[in-house]
């Protein structure tokens, strides 16, 4: 049970929440409450348990620098491994989150200059905190498509992030909606046991995965010599940074990466009609680039059927495609992504005058992707423009957590972000993003806020550039007046 009053309340116990707690501990902030609505730590890796779930970032880069893991099973970790890794980090760090404790609301109390959190759980209560850290994740709330008749489907229907393991899929006719990262991992697994029809609104750019399992000797070598893991992490980091030009629109780099993807498709799909249906008509990098060696062969072999159009309606057990074709199904799986640009938690947080959702009505914004005007002593990790399309998002979380710890360590009074500096930061991001494939690439993606057309999820630069910007933040981003008065 957390105390009634703490210095810092952290909402969420995934990578961002644990990263924040670790950074604060190293900064000797003693009074920290980590609040988690789920039954365990792990965030998205707790929630996503669909067949084939795995990371598409190399495992030795997809972890905290302070907690290398020599036991990863392979180049790309399975989802259950990542959840177990996070559970192990929490234990090693002595982080004891309050589980099954959702934040019902958080409001800034101007008179007391604290945050008041209304908490759910077994014993609902008010928690008072000097500072609030929102580490709620960006891929937590499933996006359910507005498909006419969806409610009439008589069989099991669930989202990939809410997988129903009680359903026996053996021999079933399964409709899968979506061709993003989850579907590309899922379909080859389902095709082993079931009759799968995949509804594709638009195809993805897919490049070879080329992962392999580590041998016992390799894992033993990682465990015996920490410098080997450190050097590997450095190599993987540099490799990721080199991918940025191809994802962000550099002409030569994008053309080279596009050729790799097309060659991969041609090598695995010989049927010209099917190959054409699987060829994107938008710029490389506009959507998330996927990694798979198994997806194309399943479709090419006829082990799964590609419906090269979106699901337009549902009539009982009949799934009607935009093409007019009708498919019978016993089970319907939605691999339709998440509410990414409009975060549900924003409606629960009220600052000095408005809710965070109202402040973000034109798209998510934050100075340094972390602090927001009108929301004193509040930090958002893994939020506005803090994701990546070319490297590990854990790297960004670690930089934000370090910024959080430095800022709170030198805090004197209330930290109020200057509106002009957030506006300048946002304008800079808008300018940097304008010519990139994410904005101008001719696709619809989950990086861009549909209300305004602004890039609000991705950082339009390298990790190096993000690190440099946050390291250079010197406190001038905050209004000085009240802090100076209280210090004098």
Automatic annotation (TrEMBL):
Gene3D superfamilies in alphabetical order: FAD/NAD(P)-binding domain
Any Pfam family matching the protein: NAD_binding_8
SUPFAM superfamilies: FAD/NAD(P)-binding domain
PANTHER family the UniProt entry points to: FAD_NAD(P)-BINDING DOMAIN-CONTAINING PROTEIN-RELATED (PTHR42877:SF4), L-ORNITHINE N(5)-MONOOXYGENASE-RELATED (PTHR42877)
Name of the protein in question: NAD(P)/FAD-dependent oxidoreductase
Taxonomic path: Bacteria, Bacillati, Actinomycetota, Actinomycetes, Micrococcales
